What we know:
The protein is of the alpha+beta class and 68 residues long. It contains three helices and three strands. The longest helix is centred in the middle third of the chain and has 8 residues, at 39-46.
Amino acid sequence: MLCERCQKREAVVHVTEVVAGSGEMKKQNLCEPCYSESDIAKTLNAKTAGWTSYHPPQTILPDDESNR
Length: 68
Ligand SMILES: [Zn+2]
């Protein structure tokens, strides 16, 4: 999947914006440079609520102790 901003690099950051009020979700797929240049990164620092970002799923090891 290509970055939606520059359309050149592979998108590695997938951001979901939840629009306050309507609950509508906007998705953006960005490469690392575009993400760090975008307002999203700044917004995330200033206001985490309403924004989520994640990298492609990582392997989560089973936590045996919490399953007991
Ligand atoms: Zn880009």
